[in-house]
Design a protein that fits this description.
The protein is α/β, with parallel strands linked by helices. Helices cover 39% and strands 22% of the residues. Strands 3, 4, 5, 6, 7, 8, 9, 10 and 11 form a 9-stranded mixed sheet that branches. α1 packs across α2 (19-26) and α1 (4-16) packs across α4. Pfam families: HTH_1, LysR_substrate.
Length: 291
């Protein structure tokens, strides 16, 4: 009968494209990975890879079994994480990582209920971009993350949508784009874009690269200041830009397509090892409907 190690070797080979790359990712010898896959093929009584080319490619049978293999590995991961969390005591401290583009005043209201029920609980708050927060959760530097929704959430994280925040395109009042109405998105390609990305140079799934001339930051408030100084246009949460718009130093980009902005969902993420603990369930309950 097939084993978890065999399924890991199979799925990782597909994801990385070769037996050697899979071995490097899994920290095993290539011969071990190859043998796991051979044993899986014996157990399934069918070849899963074509090996005639330079790189292995899935057979029709391999394509059929791949999604089920991924699902089994995810269930095994959840079982392992749930088992590890069965006898965890209430933690003495919790680290919450928050995307700095999400209004802290709103989130802070949720902490009152938590503090009342757990008066001895110590809280630490970290601020980072959403993609950096996902890395923090992976390494358990943070236990709870509040981020803008990403398309690719690791399977070891549980998540729940809390609401949404409006984003719009902004420009300094002194910028050349402020004196014209952009007919379409192609006008934006002629001017520098100010774009958010993580400290590991990943770009969020809703932060699109439009202009060939881009300046980056991992912080919305740095982008705000660069925009105020006239260095380019950028996409910002409306509440971040609100004060500067009221002062007149920043304006919503004049564009013929009036609603170029959009609503970005906000999610709370918790590692599976901790998400079933009562204190984390209480935190999620307090956060619901705040946005």
């Amino acid at each position: 009968m097939f084993s978890v190690e065999q399924l890991q070797a199979f799925v990782t080979t597909v994801e990385t494209g070769s037996f050697s790359a899979a071995a490097r990712q899994l920290g095993k010898a290539q011969s071990v990975v190859s043998q796991h896959i051979i044993n899986l093929e014996i157990d399934c009584n069918t070849p899963l890879f074509e090996r005639t080319g330079r790189y292995p490619t899935l057979t029709a049978e391999g394509k059929t079994l791949l999604p089920q293999s991924i699902a089994l590995l995810q269930q095994h991961q959840r079982f392992t994480n749930s088992a590890l969390g069965l006898h965890q005591p209430i933690p003495d401290d919790i680290t919450i990582a928050l995307d700095e583009g999400i209004p802290l005043k709103t989130i802070a209201k949720a902490i009152t209920n938590l503090e009342t029920k757990y008066p001895n609980l110590s809280l630490e708050f970290l601020s980072a971009s959403s993609l950096d927060i996902i890395d923090m959760l992976k390494n358990e530097r943070a236990i709870t993350g509040i981020i803008f929704s990403e398309l690719d959430i690791p399977s070891y994280l549980d998540y729940e949508c809390l609401g949404a925040i409006k984003f719009d395109l902004y420009i300094a009042k002194s910028h050349p784009l402020a004196n014209q109405v952009c007919k379409n998105i192609d006008n934006l390609r002629l001017h520098r874009q100010l774009l958010l990305r993580s400290r590991t140079t990943q770009t969020s799934s809703f932060q699109f690269k439009i202009s060939p001339d881009i300046w980056y930051s991992d912080n919305y408030f740095v982008l705000l200041e660069l925009a105020i100084q006239g260095y380019g246009w950028c996409l910002l949460p409306s509440h971040v830009a609100f004060d500067e718009v009221n002062k007149g130093s920043l304006i919503k980009l004049p564009i013929e397509f009036k609603e170029m902005g959009w609503m970005a969902n906000i999610d709370v993420l918790q590692h599976q090892k901790h998400s079933s603990l009562e204190v984390f369930r209480d935190l999620r309950t307090s956060l619901r409907n705040l946005l």
